[in-house]
Amino acid sequence: MQSLSKILFNGHFYLGNNQWAENIGISKEGSIVLDTASFSGPRIDMRSRYIYPAFEDAHNHPARRSRTLQEVDLRGQSLTWPEVKIILQEKIAQTPAGQWVVCHGWNQAWGSVTQQDVNELSHDHGIFIIHISYHGALVNKKGLDLLAAAGLRCNTRDGVLHEDIFEQAENITAPNTQTYIDLIRRYQERLVRKGLGAVHDLYVANMAQVEAYHELEHSGKLLLDTPIYVGTQLLQQGQRLQPFVRPAARAPIVGLKLFIDGTIGTRTAAFHDSYCDVANKGMVRLTKESCKEYIKKAADLGLTHIAMHCIGDEGIDRAVDWFQEFQSEFGSAITTWRFEHFEMPTPHAIEALAQHGGIASMQPNFLWDAVHYQQAVGDRVKNINPFQSLIQAGVPIIFGSDDVPTGPLEGLAWTCAQAPYPNQALTVEQAFAFYTSEPARIVKADHRGRIAPGYDANLVVLDTNIFSGNAADLTTAEVSQTWIRGEKVWDSPSAH
User: How far apart are CA 144 and CA 156, in angstroms?
Assistant: First the structure.
């Protein structure tokens, strides 16, 4: 009798299409075996729990967000500015003069915070307060002096940095390679607790992050397969970047990220009509010509994916129109065109993606912020994330979180049980595929995303049947365990 690494029994293993198995085997290579009758091996009782293919977050930022583990992270907390000041003052007291104090999570709940407010916190430290959207920041005067000393002169009267300048400042304040090695590993440990078996890093911005990923993979410490999309600034590295474009790697650089517009939160997402609360229509960050030049450089490096960040209807229309032109020009060199967020698409944009094979990479967990979006865009909020319209048109969809917040279960709950408008509501079966098999498919990882023979034994164990039709089973589901290639990498203490 042949031997397996282990046999998992007494479970409910989801095979898709309402099909379930009571047990599975795991080979010594970490792949799934369904027919275990002729095999022996150690047996593990799954205690009648529900086991699904592990989730794949198609849009996250493990490298970029990992720094929150050592900096002030106030995201997801309901705080006033006086409360934030106390937290920052404590961090400043622990930080040597002349160094940076970086805070994450600036949002409108803090009220009208100005550069003068931040200046009063310290004249000896650079203070860099990052907006929750990661498309802007507030910097004190000392911080501007430190940025200038590093070669970045910011043309700002109020200390607010947006988009390109913000990204450059973010890199200047960022950790080094050795620090990132530790932080990315720790951040991925947090991701597996959410049931993730793979993650797409949609904006690697500097060589320290690239080198950290390479070292983690080389040392065997990379927990999750992580396809990487780099920012345009890394194209300047040329030959230095080339060795990391390795299709067979666990953390390969596969594509280029282009920012066509900004975000609704910073009022920089580009719209055909003005915002409701400010007199502007947002901004288009790139020209067609600059996009074309960046894509050519990416193709010359061997990158085959293009991911276009586009949120407002104007930004999306620009991205889609350029895509249709570029697709024929770059032919087989660029095989995958992704549209990140794609929050407020026009009928024209939806039809173009359906006809030309563009992929909508969306974040259902953004629906929690609809009340704030309504202040910015008024009745247009009903047009955000029109999942049903895309499905009916035949547009391929993949789901990610953008770390706002990370957690596929949160995204599933929002779109399947708590969607504010009918066009945003999906069945659990639809949304589940967008979080598992579909992200794996578009990065050509045909060994992930299903419980099927030969697939990687990447599994998430939940305490409920999320396909039961009972909304409470979905909204209250918790991750008990996560398995990667047949090894248990997370075991919740609360599950025992």
Answer: 9
Q: For the stretch 124-150, what's the b/e string if a residue is b when 16 or more beta carbons lie within 10 angstroms of its beta carbon?
A: ebbbbbbbbbbbbbbbbbbbbebbeee
Contacts 24+ apart (CB under 8 A), 445-449: 445/198, 445/225, 445/227, 447/31, 448/53, 448/56, 448/197, 448/198, 448/225, 449/53, 449/56
Q: What domains does the chain contain, in order, with CATH numbers?
A: 2-54+455-495 (2.30.40.10), 71-172 (3.10.310.70), 177-442 (3.20.20.140)
pLDDT score recorded for residue 471:
87
The pLDDT value recorded for residue 368 is 64
Sorted by sequence, the CB contacts under 8 Å of residue 110 that are 6+ apart come out as 79, 80, 81, 84
Cα(102)–Cα(137) distance, rounded to whole angstroms?
10
What per-residue confidence (pLDDT) applies to 369? 64
- Write out the chain in H/E/C secondary structure: CEECCEEEECCEEEEECCEEECCEEECCCCEEECCCCCEECCEEECCCCEEEECEEEEEECHHHHHHHHCCEECCCCCCCHHHHHHHHHHHHHCCCCCCEEEEEEECHHHCCCCHHHHHCCCCCCEEEEEECCCCEEEECHHHHHHHHHCCCCCCCCCCEEEHHHHHHHHHHCCCCHHHHHHHHHHHHHHHHCCCEEEEEEEEECCHHHHHHHHHHHHCCCCCCECCEEECHHHHHHHHHCHHHCCCCCCCCEEEEEEECCCCCCCCCCCCCCCCCCCCCCCCCCCCHHHHHHHHHHHHHHCCCEEEEEECCHHHHHHHHHHHHHHHHHHHHHCCEEEEEECCCCCHHHHHHHHHHCCEEEECHHHHHHHHHHHHHHHHHHHHCCCHHHHHHHCCCEEECCCCCCCCHHHHHHHHHHCCCCHHHCCCHHHHHHHCCHHHHHHCCCCCCCCCCCCCECCEEEECCCCCCCCHHHHHCCCEEEEEECCEEEEECHHHC
pLDDT at 371: 63
The sign of the CA dihedral 480, 194, 444, 215 is negative
CA distance 153 to 144: 8
The number of CA neighbours under 13 Å toward the Cβ of 367 is 27
Residue with tokens 């060994």: 447
Q: Which residues of the chain have pLDDT under 50?
A: none
The owner of tokens 């067609």 is 288
Q: What is the pTM of this model?
A: 0.96
